[in-house]
Design brief:
Helix content of chain A: 10-25%
Number of domains of chain B: 1
Mean pLDDT of chain B: 92
Structural class of chain A: alpha+beta
CATH superfamily of chain B: Cytochrome P450
Strand content of chain A: 15-25%
CATH topology of chain A: Alpha-Beta Plaits
Radius of gyration of chain B: 21 Å
Order of helices and strands of chain B: HEEHEHHHEHHHHHEEHHHEEEEHHEEEE
Order of helices and strands of chain A: EHEEHE
CATH class of chain B: Mainly Alpha
CATH architecture of chain B: Orthogonal Bundle
Strand order of the largest sheet of chain A: 1-4
Mean pLDDT of chain A: 96
Number of domains of chain A: 1
Strand order of the largest sheet of chain B: 1-2-10-7-3
CATH class of chain A: Alpha Beta
Low-confidence stretches of chain B: none
Shape of chain A: globular
Oligomer: heterodimer
Radius of gyration of chain A: 11 Å
Chain lengths: 65, 411
């Protein structure tokens, strides 16, 4: 499973950073930064799901290949 | 016009009035009924105003800066006279492209990491307020006026660098602004208006600039520039006014609403206290279910909204709390689920105007509820009929009498 983050859609709600800090950091202006590239480690899949499910701007998606 | 003078509402679909006391007491029921019968309600009041209540419509308007302007964000009888792009209180009243410039000036101090640094100060404030409540010896208090109300005022005063000696004066101004918005503020001790107070503070900050990184929020603004030009005094003053007006009433409302919920729902009260791992979710559910803020826009084009003919110049309300209870967008939307795992709520708005202070407000709410429940784990409404909810675009309990179980408090 992979995770995608759409910077254009992100408005800095910071829900992902609160729910999944292992996967998301924030920049100085409060916009999200995706911390991983490629496959989500199995132990973080639940947190990735939470980040996607709670983004008010639908900026995060999980992709299963 | 005071609320008691509002003409009675004949029909909420065609004659709604969000400033009527019935709306304050029954807003969720009114939204549910409208969603089922007339999802874009209208009123001739305030010169013509629309009230969409679905998540889809509210989200679409919030994301559409072509058909709507933010020049007016509070519905009133008169349209604002200061035009976009800046508006009265940038960036909330600003439109693109100026909006992004004005907003960017403020993003850093309100980003999660600087806000985190205020957490301990906030906790100390909350504990101080609870010390005072418990010191009275009574088991009765008002959680809105003795607790929730004071927290955001103290934090914003700290951020603005208001001297401790001006604390009382500052709080009097804030209460005047909140109680009679739009009216001129006069200091009871004869010290001039709030605008004069702010102008003096701005001049003082300009005359004695602090080194970068050491200043307060007023330093941040007076030292900021737009393409090399310092901000105009009215920009700085408007932004400070925005931080006060937008940051205090709203946060007070959400803290009060969360305490109202816990006071009246013993099971959730016990879970919040005993299961710290659900608090992250509980705070968001408080925000979804009791979202305090309804924003507004003014239409700039003639267009259709949900089959309704919107005309340029019409007001539109954006009831985020109604969107948050739309069953099309949330499972069991009408149920408060304290550990809800899927919660894309729009309590802080959606789109480019996402509440600039959302990280601060969320931190204050979480610290306020954590501190209260740690010190006062058992409490209930002492007089449910005496709870009074505010009317208008900010909804929260203004009077919240509670009875504390003194046997369980942590002094």
């Amino acid at each position: 499973m992979k995770i995608t983050y759409n910077r254009e859609a992100c408005q800095g709600h910071n829900r992902c950073y609160m729910l999944a800090p292992e996967l998301f950091d924030v920049d100085d202006e409060g916009y999200a930064i995706l911390r991983i590239d490629g496959e989500i480690p199995a132990e973080l899949e639940e947190k990735a799901q939470l980040a996607a499910d709670n983004c008010p701007e639908y900026a995060i998606e999980l992709v299963t290949e | 016009m005071s609320n008691t003078e509002r003409p009675p509402v004949v029909d909420w679909a065609t004659d709604f009035d969000h400033t009527h006391p019935d709306y304050g007491q029954n807003a969720p029921e009114i939204w549910d009924e409208l969603r089922a019968t007339c999802p874009v309600a209208h009123t001739e009041r305030f010169g013509g105003t629309w009230l969409p209540v679905t998540h889809e419509a509210v989200s679409a308007i919030a994301h559409d800066t072509e058909n709507y302007t933010s020049m007016g964000v509070v519905v009133s009888e008169n349209k604002p006279e200061i035009p976009a792009p800046m508006g009265f209180a940038p960036p909330i009243t600003s439109d693109p492209p100026f909006h992004a410039i004005a907003r960017r000036l403020l993003l850093e101090p309100f980003a999660p990491k600087p806000v985190k640094a205020l957490e301990q100060y906030t906790r100390d404030c909350c504990n101080g307020l609870i010390d005072d409540i418990l010191a009275s010896g009574s088991d009765l208090t008002d959680a809105a006026t003795e607790y929730a109300q004071h927290i955001p005022v103290r934090i914003i005063a700290k951020m603005l660098g208001v001297p401790e000696t001006d604390g009382d004066k500052f709080r009097r101004f804030i209460h005047q602004i909140i109680e009679t918005p739009g009216a001129d503020t006069v200091d009871e001790d004869g010290g001039g208006s709030f605008d004069e107070y702010l102008d003096a503070a701005i001049a003082e900050h300009r005359a004695n600039p602090k080194p970068p990184g050491e200043g307060d929020l007023i330093d941040h603004l007076t030292q900021a520039d737009i393409e090399g030009t310092p901000l105009l005094d009215e920009h700085v003053r408007g932004t400070i006014a925005l931080l006060l007006i937008a940051g205090i009433d709203t946060t007070w409302s959400s803290i009060g609403a969360a305490l109202w919920h816990l006071a009246s729902h013993p099971e959730d009260r016990a879970r919040y206290t005993n299961e710290p791992e659900i608090r992250l979710f509980a705070i968001e559910e408080f925000l979804r279910f009791y979202a305090p803020v309804t924003m507004a826009r003014i239409a700039v084009t003639d267009h259709e909204l949900g089959g309704c003919p919107v005309k340029a110049g019409d007001w539109l309300l954006l009831p985020f709390p109604a969107a948050n209870r739309d069953p099309e967008a949330f499972d069991d939307a009408d149920k408060f689920i304290i550990d809800r795992q899927q919660n894309r709520h729009g309590a802080f708005g959606l789109g480019i105007h996402r509440c600039l202070g959302s990280n601060l407000a969320r931190m204050e709410l979480a610290v306020a509820i954590d501190t209260w429940t740690e010190r006062i784990p058992d409490f209930e409404l002492s007089d449910p009929d005496a709870v009074r909810w505010s009317v208008g675009q900010i909804r929260g309990p203004r009077e919240l009498p509670v009875r504390i179980n003194l046997d369980t408090v942590n002094r």
